[in-house]
Design brief:
Layout lengths: L2 H29 L4 H72 L1
Helix pairs in contact: 1-2
């Protein structure tokens, strides 16, 4: 799964949540025996609650994204260090081979 697919899934979940919440609120308004003022107050309250939940979900998704980016950066750093060590060992081995060749050539 690519990063684009994961981010699309997260935004899809958030969008589905918001649509469901708004649909539920609309149905509650249509079938609830309340006055207009009570209904508006209820709608305002539900909208604030939904907004707060959406904000929290967004913050959690953002935090998970940051953690994933930090994990990836640490992994890349470890891989870079390992590659540098291998390169240094290979360079040392090549130099040792060249020196051995020169030493053998001087003996002749």
């Amino acid at each position: 799964m690519t990063a684009d697919e994961r981010s699309g899934g997260t935004s899809g979940v958030v969008l589905s949540f918001m649509v469901g919440a708004l649909s539920g609120a609309a149905l509650a308004i249509l079938f609830a025996p309340r006055s207009g003022r009570e209904t508006r107050e209820l709608l305002g309250e539900k909208l604030r609650e939904t907004s707060e939940r959406g904000r929290r979900v967004g913050e959690k998704a953002l935090e998970r994204g940051r953690e994933s980016a930090e994990d990836a950066a640490r992994y890349l750093e470890r891989q870079r260090e390992a590659l540098e060590k291998r390169r240094d060992r290979l360079a040392s081995a090549v130099e040792a081979g060249r020196q051995a060749y020169r030493d053998e050539k001087e003996k002749m």
